[in-house]
Give the backbone structure.
Amino acid sequence: MDLIQNIYREVVDGNQKAAKVAVQAAIDANIPADVILSEGMIAAMGGVGRLFEQGEYFIPEMLVSARAMQEGLNLLRPFLVAQGIEPIGKVVMGTVKGDLHDIGKNLVSMMLEGAGFEVIDLGTDTPPDKFIGAIHQHSPQLIGMSAMLTTTMPNMRHVITALETAGLRGKVRVMIGGAPVTETFMHQIGADGYAPDASRAVELAKGLLLA
């Protein structure tokens, strides 16, 4: 389908306005919303992830592609709801308490949306009780925490402790990331997964859904 190929190309190239136009053209042509999503936008973000892994794309390119995807997704969302299309999973995302950095967290959130997840973004400086409240409200399968400072990394452990205290630890999988975060730290605090970048965060989230 040329219209689907147009969506794929404009998202990969990061053309926000053109991506929106391409999605609208596909909607106007009565292409089913799930086809537009899976074969156009999800496939495109998968392509972006591969380009990143191959060293052809970097974080700025991933961001503009993710924003182009979001432009199209905003148009498509009502049609997905009307068609009864369910997200593949639900993720609560937040940068931990004391940390105001959000670029990495935002990129992961957009990449997850582009992969078919519903994302509840709690923003930055997120205390443990806000994660707990979001779990009660939204019943996600996953939570994702970001920290960009060594001084705020310990707050990831505080969230996991709060989950245990609230009796929720067994109900959600916990994934973590951020510049100073490591796989060793993941094991130390009892998280379920660590991703060094946004592309691998998507694969990690998919894997944790099946675990």
